[in-house]
Design a protein that fits this description.
- The protein is mainly beta.
- Helix content is about 0%, strand content about 40%.
- The protein has a 4-stranded antiparallel sheet with strand order 3-2-5-6, with no helix packed on it.
- Strand 5 and strand 6 form a beta hairpin.
- The radius of gyration is 12 Å and the shape is globular.
């Protein structure tokens, strides 16, 4: 059996791309890590299979439109 983290989200409007950030420590929006995945603008789900059971992860999704990225609130 594979460990996985399944995410679903909604967006208000069209974006060019989305960036999935995942870290074992809180994510500073002023110093974002390298995105774990870069997704097409029309994607609304993502499954991360590179996680370990029992660890805490911090997640943010960035939405990029016209070169400007807006980053979601952090979930744990």
């Amino acid at each position: 059996m594979t460990n996985r983290l399944e995410l679903n989200w909604e967006l208000d409007g069209f974006v060019n791309e989305q960036r999935y950030y995942c870290s074992e420590s809180p994510i500073d929006v002023n110093n974002l890590p390298t995105p774990k995945a870069v997704l097409n603008g029309d994607v609304r789900t993502y499954t991360d299979t590179d996680i370990a059971l029992g660890k805490t992860y911090y997640i943010r999704v960035g939405s990029v439109k016209n070169g400007i990225e807006k980053v979601s609130n952090e979930i744990e």
